[in-house]
Write a structure and sequence with these properties.
The complex is a heterodimer.
Chain A (H helix, E strand, L loop, with lengths): L7 H16 L3 E6 L2 H5 L2 H14 L6 E6 L11 E4 L3 E3 L4 H13 L10 E2 L4 E2 L7 H4 L17 H6 L4 H9 L2 H11 L11 H10 L6 E6 L8 H8 L1 H15 L3 E6 L4 H16 L4 E4 L4 E9 L9 H8 L23 E5 H13 L1 H5 L2 E2 L2 E2 L1 E8 L5 E6 L4 H8 L9 E6 L5 E4 L9 H6 L8 E6 L4 H15 L5 H18 L7 H15 L3 H5 L2 H20 L15 H7 L4
Helix pairs in contact in A: 3-4, 7-11, 7-14, 8-9, 8-11, 10-11, 10-12, 11-12, 11-14, 18-19, 18-22, 19-20, 20-22
Chain B lengths: L2 H9 L3 H6 L9 H14 L6 H12 L4 H11 L3 H10 L11 E6 L2 H19 L12 E6 L11 E3 L2 E3 L4 H17 L1
Parallel strand pairs in B: 1-2
Antiparallel strand pairs in B: 1-3, 3-4
Helix pairs in contact in B: 1-6, 3-4, 3-5, 4-5, 5-6
Classes of the chains: A alpha/beta, B alpha+beta.
Chain lengths: 575, 186
C-alpha cells in the first residue's frame, strides 16, 4: 500500500483487488495456524501441502492461506478446502499427500480424513453440515480461521476498517457511543459492565489527554478466547481501539498483553505496523483530522494485572497492585488522565457493531444480555476449543450439542463457569440460559467465558482447593482480607483433601468466604471465595464425606499428595 | 506473592557490588551492560518505562541480577529499591540465571484436571529438581505456569517457546531425552 488510505473507495478497491486475485485459483486451502494447531505442527502440514501441490503441477492453481484459530483445537491440525468447504482434521504429512493427489488433483474428497462426528458415528466432510459450526454465530470471531491473520488486505477484503472509515468521516463521537449503547454490548472480560455507558462516561470527561486501553492480560486459567482473537484477527482489535479512541477522544491507546502469549504479541505488533503504514493509525486518519496511535505494553506474569487499576499501575512501570476505586479509571486513570479500558473480545465486536448498527447486534442474545459470547471449552469434553454463540443458549446445547459431550463414556458431573472467580453448574441446571443474570443466580458467573467441563472423576473439594491455591498464589498481598483469607481458606481445604478435615470446617469456610468477599480491595479477593461457596452449595455431601467418612468419591484425594512437599514445590514457581 | 525472590533480592544486597555497577562490574558481561545502557538511553525520558527496560534487559542478559538492577536504577534515576520492588513483583523477571532450556508445566485448570499435576511429579523424579530450580549441568530449568492458554491441548507443557500438547509421563521423558540428544550432537 503505497499511499495512505483516506476514503471508502480506496478500501473497496483493495477489497476488489484482493478478491480478484483469489479467483485465478482452483482451490484455496485454509490451514489453521491457531495456537493449538501450531503445537500440533501445522507448519509441516502447510509446507507439505505447498510442496506436494508443486510436485503435482498444481502449485499455481492452489492458494494456501494460514489462518487464525478455527476453534476445533482438539482435532488439530485442521484445514479447510474451498470450494466445497471440506474440513480435514488431525492431519499429518502422509494424509496431506493423499489429499493433494485425490482431492486437489482429481477432485475426489478424501472422506476418511474429514471431520468425524462421534455422536453420529460418521464423517461429515462439509463444514456447513458440522454441528460444531452450524449452531454458532460468529461476530467477535468473524474473521478467525477465515482469513490470513497477517495480511491487512485480507482484513480489508472482509470489510475491515469500513466501520472506522464510516465513523471518522460520517459520525460524531457521540453517535459512535450511541451506537454502542444501542447494541447492548457488555464488557466481555468478566465484569459485564455495559460498554456504551463506560464510553459515555469517558467521552463526557473534559481533559487534554485521554487514553484508551485494551486489556489483553487474559490470565484466568482456562481462558484462551482473547488469545484466539489476537492470534487470528489482530486488526479487529486495532480497529476497535481506533473506534474507541475516536468515541472518547483519546489520541493514544495501549494494548496490555501477557508475556505468556509471545505469538499474540508478534501478530498484534505486525498488525499495528501494517495499519500505520496504511495511514490507519497516526495523524489525520481518513482525512478527519483525528490522530490516534497504539503502543504495546507487555505484562510480566502477574494475574492481578488483569484488574484495571493494577493494569494501569503496570503500564506506568510500577508494581501491579490494585488500588481503591473511586476514582474510577474514566475519572482518573493512566498517568492521572481519563482512561477507558476494554477487553479484547469487547473491542473485536465494535467494528461489526459500528458497521452494521447497534440494533443489528442487539437482535442476538436475550433481554439484558445482548449479542454473542465466545466460550473457551476445556477439560473433559469431546471438542475442546473455542465457540461463539448467541447469549442465552443453554449450557447443555453448548457442551453436548455443539461440543459433543463427555468423552470416553464418562458421566458429566459439573461445569466450572467463569474460572477462579466463578462457580460450578451441575446437571440439574444445565438447561439454564447462559446469560449474565441467570448464571449469577446459580452462583456461577459468565466471566470471560471459560467453561471447564468436569466428569465424575473430578473431586469438587479438590477443584475448590485448586482454585484457592491459584488465588492465594496470585493474591498481591496488598490487603489483609485477601492475603490472609485466601491462605486460611487454602489451609482448611488442604486439610480436608488430606483426610484431616474437622467437624465444623465447612461452616468455618463459609464464614471466611463471606468476610473475604465483602472486605477485599479488588475483584480478585472479592470473587476468590466463589469457587468454594459454589462447590459447598452443590456438593456439600462431598465435603462431609471427606471429613466424616474419609471418602473421596472421585478417588483423587488422600492419596498422591505429598503433604509437605507439594505446596512447597508449587510455591517456588515464582523466581 | 513472591516470597523467595524477595529474600534473594534486597536482603542479599551488597552495597559494594551495587556501587561497583556504576562503573560496570567485575565478572559482569561488559558488552551486555553497554547494550543495556543504550536501551536505557532510549527510554529514560519516557514516563513509566521501567518495565519495558527490564524486559529488554532480560532479553539481553538472560536474567536480572542485583548489579544489573542497580545499573538500571541509576540509568533511569530511580532508587534500587523501586527497581527491585518491581523486579520481584513480577514472576516473569528472573533474578537467577536459567538453564539452557526452560521446561514449563502448565497448571491452568484444564491442564490440572487432565493430569498436569502428575507431570510436575514426573519432572521432579526425572530431573531431581524442584520448581524454579536448574539442573546441575545448567541444561534445564523447571517452571510451573498458571496458564499458557493452550487449554484445548491439555495437559500442555512448554519448552522454551515450543508448546507440546497432551503430554503424558512417557512423552515428557521422551521430550527431555530429545533435548539432551540435541545437546550432545552439537
Amino acid at each position: 500500500m503505497a499511499e495512505p488510505i483516506k476514503t471508502l473507495k480506496q478500501l473497496e478497491d483493495i477489497k476488489k483487488e484482493y478478491l480478484a486475485a483469489q479467483e485465478k485459483y482452483d482451490y484455496i486451502v485454509y490451514v489453521c495456524g491457531g495456537a493449538g494447531c501450531v503445537a500440533a505442527s501445522c507448519e509441516t502440514v502447510k509446507n507439505t501441502l505447498i510442496a506436494e501441490a508443486g510436485k503435482a503441477g498444481i502449485g499455481a492453481k492452489t492458494l494456501v492461506i494460514q489462518t487464525g484459530c478455527m476453534g476445533t483445537c482438539a482435532i488439530g491440525p485442521v484445514m479447510l478446502v474451498t470450494p466445497g468447504n471440506i474440513f480435514y482434521t488431525e492431519l499429518n504429512a502422509a494424509k496431506v499427500k493423499t489429499i493433494v493427489s485425490d482431492h486437489l488433483v482429481n477432485g475426489k474428497v478424501v472422506e476418511e480424513y474429514t471431520y468425524y462426528d462421534a455422536a453420529l458415528e460418521k464423517h461429515v466432510p462439509c463444514m456447513d453440515d458440522i454441528n460444531f459450526f452450524k449452531k454458532q454465530v460468529k461476530i467477535a470471531l468473524r474473521n478467525c480461521g477465515a482469513m490470513a491473520y497477517n495480511d491487512i488486505a485480507a482484513y480489508i477484503a472482509r470489510d475491515g476498517y469500513q466501520a472506522a472509515c464510516k465513523a471518522l468521516t460520517e459520525l460524531s463521537p457521540q453517535k459512535v457511543v450511541d451506537e454502542v449503547k444501542a447494541s447492548g454490548l457488555r464488557g466481555r472480560g468478566g465484569a459485564g459492565f455495559p460498554t456504551g455507558i463506560k464510553w459515555q462516561a469517558a467521552h463526557d470527561q473534559k481533559a487534554e489527554q485521554k487514553y484508551m486501553v485494551c486489556n489483553a492480560d487474559e490470565g484466568d486459567p482456562g481462558a484462551f478466547m482473547d488469545r484466539s482473537i489476537l492470534d487470528g484477527d489482530p486488526h479487529s482489535v486495532v480497529e476497535g481501539m481506533l473506534l474507541g479512541g475516536y468515541a472518547i477522544g483519546a489520541s493514544i491507546g495501549f494494548i496490555y498483553i501477557r508475556a505468556e502469549y509471545p505469538v499474540a504479541v508478534e501478530r498484534i505488533s505486525e498488525a499495528i505496523d501494517q495499519a500505520r503504514k496504511a495511514g490507519l493509525l497516526g495523524k489525520d486518519i481518513f482525512g478527519s483530522g483525528f490522530d490516534f496511535d497504539l503502543e504495546i505494553r507487555i505484562g510480566a506474569g502477574v494475574y492481578v494485572c488483569g484488574e484495571e487499576t493494577a493494569l494501569m499501575a503496570s503500564i506506568e512501570g510500577r508494581r501491579g497492585e490494585p488500588r481503591q476505586k473511586p476514582p474510577l479509571p474514566f475519572q482518573k486513570g493512566l498517568f492521572g488522565c481519563p482512561t477507558n479500558i476494554n477487553n479484547v473480545e469487547t473491542l473485536a465486536n465494535i467494528p461489526a457493531i459500528i458497521k452494521n448498527g447497534g440494533k443489528w447486534y442487539a437482535q442476538y442474545g436475550i433481554e439484558d444480555s445482548k449479542g454473542t459470547k465466545v466460550f473457551a471449552l476445556a477439560g473433559d469434553v469431546v471438542m475442546t476449543g473455542i465457540v461463539e454463540v448467541p447469549i442465552g443458549m443453554t449450557m447443555r446445547e453448548i457442551i453436548f450439542d455443539i461440543c459433543g459431550g463427555i468423552p470416553n463414556g464418562k458421566k458429566f458431573k459439573a461445569v466450572q463457569s467463569g474460572g477462579p472467580s466463578g462457580g460450578v453448574v451441575t446437571e440439574a441446571d444445565l438447561d439454564t440460559p447462559t446469560d449474565y443474570k441467570s448464571l449469577q443466580q446459580l452462583g456461577a458467573i459468565m466471566g470471560s467465558g471459560i467453561l471447564i467441563v468436569m466428569n465424575e472423576d473430578t473431586c469438587m473439594v479438590d477443584s475448590a482447593r485448586y482454585f484457592m491455591e491459584f488465588t492465594r498464589e496470585e493474591s498481591c498481598g496488598k490487603c489483609n482480607a485477601c492475603r490472609l483469607g485466601t491462605k486460611r481458606m487454602l489451609e482448611i481445604l488442604e486439610r480436608i483433601v488430606d483426610g484431616e478435615g474437622e467437624e465444623g470446617d465447612v461452616e468455618l469456610l463459609e464464614e471466611l468466604c463471606e468476610v473475604v468477599a465483602e472486605t477485599s480491595l479488588c475483584g480478585l479477593g472479592q470473587t476468590a471465595p466463589n469457587a468454594v461457596m459454589s462447590t459447598i452449595r452443590y456438593f456439600r455431601d462431598e465435603y462431609n464425606e471427606h471429613i466424616r467418612d474419609g471418602i473421596c468419591r472421585a478417588g483423587v484425594c488422600f492419596t498422591q499428595r505429598d503433604k509437605k512437599a507439594y505446596p512447597q514445590r508449587l510455591r517456588g514457581r515464582v523466581l | 506473592m513472591n516470597n523467595e525472590s524477595t529474600g534473594s533480592g534486597v536482603k542479599a544486597m551488597d552495597v559494594k557490588t551495587a556501587a561497583a555497577a556504576n562503573k560496570g562490574c567485575e565478572g559482569c558481561n561488559q558488552e551486555a551492560f553497554d547494550k543495556i545502557g543504550n536501551i536505557i538511553d532510549l527510554y529514560k525520558d519516557k514516563e513509566g518505562s521501567l518495565i519495558q527496560v527490564l524486559h529488554k534487559a532480560q532479553e539481553v542478559y538472560g536474567y536480572l541480577p542485583l548489579e544489573l538492577q542497580s545499573f538500571i536504577a541509576d540509568g533511569l534515576g530511580m532508587s534500587l529499591s523501586e527497581v527491585s520492588g518491581v523486579v520481584t513483583f513480577y514472576p516473569f523477571f528472573k533474578t537467577k540465571p536459567h538453564g539452557r532450556h526452560t521446561i514449563s508445566i502448565c497448571m491452568g485448570t484444564a491442564c490440572y484436571v487432565r493430569g498436569g499435576k502428575k507431570l510436575v511429579d514426573t519432572i521432579h523424579e526425572l530431573l531431581g529438581i524442584e520448581v524454579g530450580e536448574t539442573t546441575g549441568d545448567g541444561m534445564f530449568t523447571f517452571m510451573v505456569e498458571r496458564c499458557i492458554g493452550a487449554c484445548g491441548l491439555a495437559p500442555a507443557i512448554m519448552v522454551d517457546d515450543t508448546v507440546y500438547r497432551e503430554v503424558d509421563e512417557e512423552m515428557l521423558a521422551a521430550i527431555i531425552e530429545k533435548y539432551r540428544k540435541e545437546e550432545v550432537s552439537k
